[in-house]
Design brief:
single chain; alpha+beta; 3 domains; eight-stranded mixed sheet; two-stranded antiparallel sheet; 10 strands
């Protein structure tokens, strides 16, 4: 009986270890097969241990011998993990610190240092002053906040407007602190069965953001200066999140006074260590099923505990609740209109327009379109392309045409921003540029401009014969550029222009076909580009049976390519980008 169990468990263990996916399949088949396969490796190891013990150790016969063998095998399984398990436990204990909870919320004042871990670090192009920094600056008695995020140490201050230049420095999403207060309020309201509707929460956050913007456009200026590690502060807030692979995971928030004494400390320390007895553990899902040595979790909290550092901080430290006046958004909008209406408005007043653009979210509402158009057309408002992308994304209404063109021809516009404006122009409806303005013609004629604004070249197709003549010249000039990365944007957009024009572009075939046929064609660099050019050539009027193909193509390859090309021609829509490289 024992020998049979050993053989059966060994075979099942071999199957389970060799093909972990079968375990998941077993769980789908009424659970029992999967459960048996998941236990088989561990059962086999212990049965094998029992067999070895009975073969080499002087155990008495009968039930007592079997009990002794099982106990000894269990002891070996326990001892096998003991050394590493104890070492891991000691590493976990080394990270433990006593909890410190103040009897009353701490009232911070003076200079505060805020040390942030990687999850809180600045977002791209962010100021470094996050919502916690903003909330501290908003708290009575706090004069400055020194933020250290492992990359830079900066001291932020709010000063009366006019006493320091406004460089456009703004806190990163200051309304984010409302999420923390919401968490606290939600728990209290949930006890009373009162849950705030999402619409109210959203409106409140928008009002907070608008109130901060008004504050920094009318009363105060946010300034920042780099400081060294030697600068001392009155209070220190340290948010720790150490989660290195193989080490204990430490999540902690501490508030230290000037003497370094902890006045608040809340922590969650967890560590995955080896289980008390050696065993195999089946982990993962269908796509990554595998086996590992069984582990357990040591934690200073409950089994499913999580740690929210900002929540713990706000629960035990006095922080100002952000102001959320109901009329903040309307007041900000009025300030933007007033600044645009004033021909003498300086750069500091026009920062309100940039701030208002940031408040629009991810979708442009019809009632806001006209004002956004005004901002785009007013060149006094700089560097707005990335702000517009948040809600314009891939397409922009035709109303933006004049403003985008003016931005492209403006010498102060960066090459990257010209690319944004050109892509929006390129996606406007067919025929939009049939009667081009002087500035639009200037873009198509000026090499510097059309190199930065290459997507706009495709819209030469709207102008008919003059556009075709210009594209013929441009494709020859582009083909002569010896660098593919520099040549590609121009070639790609001119090809799109030929495709848009279709059959009227046939006069360009004598120029384009020889370039296409070259062994190292300057028009393409991979198979996808070749397919797009095939579709374009057919739209330009080249018969499909005259399409040139590589010499190594078989008749079957050619037939397949021709079929796919004709299908692409049939599906072509000039109002839809082909998706290649955006």
């Amino acid at each position: 009986m024992f020998k049979t169990a050993l053989i059966v468990s060994g075979v099942l263990a071999l199957i389970a270890l060799a093909a972990p996916g079968l375990v998941i399949l077993g769980f789908f088949l009424l659970i029992i097969p999967g459960l048996i396969l998941s236990l088989a490796p561990t059962v086999f190891v212990y049965l094998l241990l029992i067999a070895i013990i009975r073969a080499v150790a002087p155990v008495p016969p009968g039930a007592i011998g079997w009990i002794a063998s099982v106990a000894l095998a269990a002891g070996i399984g326990w001892a096998a993990t003991l050394p590493l398990r104890e070492a891991q436990t000691l590493r976990w204990r080394a990270q433990l610190k006593p909890e410190v909870i103040p009897a009353a919320p701490l009232q911070l004042a003076g200079d505060i240092s805020l040390d942030l871990p990687p999850p809180f670090r600045r977002k791209r192009d962010g100021s470094g002053c996050d919502y916690l920094c903003a909330a501290l600056l908003d708290t009575a008695g706090v004069t400055s906040v020194t933020v250290s995020d492992g990359e830079l140490r900066q001291r932020f201050r709010l000063v009366p407007r006019g006493t320091a230049p406004d460089t456009g420095l703004r806190p990163d999403s200051p309304e984010g602190i409302s999420n923390v207060f919401d968490t606290i309020d939600h728990k209290q309201r949930a006890k009373r069965g009162m849950i705030r509707p999402w619409e109210q929460t959203k409106a409140m956050r928008e009002a907070i953001a608008a109130a901060w913007t008004l504050r920094l456009n009318t009363r105060e200026t946010l300034v920042a200066e780099p400081v060294g590690d030697e600068v001392k502060t009155d209070w220190a807030i340290k948010i720790i999140r150490d989660d290195k692979r193989g080490d204990p995971k430490v999540e902690r928030v501490e508030v230290l006074d000037r003497d370094g004494k902890a006045r608040l400390r809340r922590s969650l320390v967890t560590h995955r260590i080896l289980a008390d007895f050696f065993a195999f553990d089946f982990v993962g899902g269908i796509e990554n099923a595998h086996w590992a040595i069984a582990r357990k979790t040591l934690s200073t909290g409950s089994k499913y505990a999580s740690f929210d550092a900002p929540y713990e901080l706000v629960s035990h430290v006095v922080l100002a609740r952000p102001a959320a006046p109901a009329d903040a958004k309307a007041t900000l909008r009025a300030a933007v209109v007033a600044a645009l209406d004033d021909p003498n408005a300086g750069p500091e007043r026009l920062l309100a327009a940039r701030d208002w653009l940031k408040s629009l979210g991810f979708k442009l509402q019809p009632e806001d379109e006209q004002l956004v158009v005004r901002i785009v057309e007013d060149r006094r408002v700089p560097d707005i392309a990335r702000l517009l992308y948040a809600f314009l994304n891939e397409e922009a209404p035709v109303a933006f045409r004049r403003g985008f063109v003016a931005r492209i021809v403006n010498p102060a516009t960066s090459a990257d921003d010209r690319g944004y404006y050109a892509r929006w122009l390129a996606r406007m409806p067919v025929g939009t540029f049939a009667n081009p303005t002087a500035d639009e013609q200037k873009i198509w004629a000026d090499r510097t401009m059309y190199t930065d604004a290459a997507p706009f070249l495709a819209r030469l197709a709207d102008t008919g014969q003059p556009g075709l003549e210009r594209m013929i010249v441009l494709i020859q000039e582009a083909a002569a550029i010896d660098s593919w990365p520099k040549r590609r944007p121009l070639v790609r957009e001119i090809r799109r222009g030929f495709a848009r024009m279709g059959a009227p572009a046939a006069p360009a075939l004598p120029v384009v076909l020889p370039l296409y046929k070259l062994r190292s064609s300057p028009l393409m660099n991979e198979w996808r580009e070749r397919q797009l050019w095939q579709m374009t050539l057919v739209r330009m009027g080249l018969p499909i049976d005259q399409m040139p193909y590589p010499s190594n193509f078989t008749p079957e390859d050619i037939a397949k390519e021709q079929k796919e090309t004709l299908e692409a021609v049939g599906k072509y829509d000039p109002d839809q980008r082909d998706g290649y490289n955006y």
